[in-house]
Amino acid sequence: MNQHETPLFTGLKKHRDRKPVQFHIPGHKGGKGMDEEFRSFIGDQALSIDLINIEPLDDLHHPQGMIKQAQDLAAEAFGADYTFFSVQGTSGAIMTMIMSVCHPGDKIIVPRNVHKSVTTAIIFSGAKPVFIHPELDDRFGISHGITSEAVLKACEAHPDAKGLLVINPTYFGVSADLKKIVNIAHRFDIPVLVDEAHGVHIHFHERLPLSAMQAGADMAATSVHKLGGSLTQSSVLNLREGLVSHERVQSILSMLHTTSTSYLLLASLDAARRHLAIHGRELMEETLRLADHARRRLNEIPGIYCPGSEILTSDATVDFDPTKLIISVKKLGLSGYDVEVWLREKANIEVELSDLYNILCIVTPGDREEDIDELVTALDKLSKEYSDKEETENIRVKVPDIPVLALSPREAFYSSTETILLKEAVGRISAEFVMVYPPGIPIFIPGEIITRENIDYIHDNVEAGLPVQGPEDDTLETIQVIREQRAFK
Ligand SMILES: Cc1ncc(COP(=O)(O)O)c(C=O)c1O
Known about the structure:
This protein has 489 residues and is of the alpha+beta class. Helix content is 36%, strand content 15%. It has helices at 7-17, 36-42, 44-48, 66-78, 89-101, 116-125, 148-157, 178-187, 224-227, 246-256, 263-298, 336-347, 369-386, 409-414, 452-463; strands at residues 82-86, 107-111, 128-132, 136-137, 142-143, 163-167, 174-175, 192-196, 219-222, 235-239, 319-320, 324-328, 353-354, 358-362, 417-421, 434-436, 441-444, 468-469, 478-482. Helix 5 packs across helix 10 (246-256). The longest helix is centred in the middle third of the chain and has 36 residues, at 263-298. Pyridoxal-5'-phosphate (PLP) binds at residues 89-91, 94, 115, 117, 167, 171, 195, 197, 223, 235, 438-440.
């Protein structure tokens, strides 16, 4: 196999060059039938390969030609036995992983701080989650991974589980001991499914945490679009065969996917794989250099703290991705969200996410030294503006408590419900998700018992201006809970 080739992207261009008369969708027919302003903005080149699964362009639902060749090259690049392209993001790939191993009633071991696509797949499949509590870090108010000891205990207590899901690395770039976790799960023949949404690049440099495939995991859902240079929404599902069959994965992926797959997204995956396979190491070397430089300069600013390897203090935190800049701003007496807004309004800088105590900035091969300079200069200015407010140094960091699951998420989701005031919901069972997005990790999932502490945490986030989402009532005044049967008098 030749990693310099792009069978799908090249195949699309060749097809376009033949200029066939098109009597098929998409009806814009190379852009000629669409809004002129949009057409000239997007450009004829892009529109000319916005095609569908006609001959000879292959079909994501049954790949045998150029899509298969592109997937095979990706499998080689990622060290997998099979790679499947997803145009439904990593969310689609995560749902595929879970539905490939779980039947209704099957157990799956998952950390509680999972992305909502995991809980959605648990609801769709009817699987029963066995939650492992992630390690909470009260220095930063974030949650990390799971310990191998917790995994061992969960596997011993539930040897019949059909899967173990691990987030590697987390949104904040922290990894647990994935290799050890995989070895433990495999002793029980439990397949390991990795949410690798934030780790497509880690496979390509030895200073970065082990990728799922390097650690011997069975499947990984990997967002090429987030950090690997493909277009938004395009991801891959990598599979190491043994405990999971590729035919099963292909059929579930197809069930969950649109039949109108975007060839622009697919071609961007093919090209991003070439870029990573050929230049990945050197790109990551330069990105790591920039990130190290940024971290050093950020830590010279009073009131700002950007942790490095000292964030690793336990078995749940054994490695980290230095390209993720977790910037703690609590000592400035500001919330992460305040800083996000300040940077937007005063410096025209957009961050990846903010929470109550931090902002997260990601450094990628798309960054240059000037971008780092702008961030450092802006935060230095912010620090000077707020330095007199440093008395808030001992701010108490709150990490949300993990609620108790009273019903399976599926039972709760399909139960009869009633709508009540959120402030009066303590003790009731939630029928809805409530999460801060990003990162999209639920505060409540359907089936969990609502606590005062978590209602207060929701209010803290709303008051700080953070995007709390999930309930049908987006004012968050009310929440849907499981209807209680009352005895008749
Ligand atoms: C940890 C994690 N998993 C999964 C996803 C879903 O990825 P995608 O947006 O590609 O569907 C995200 C997205 O933010 C995420 O943060």
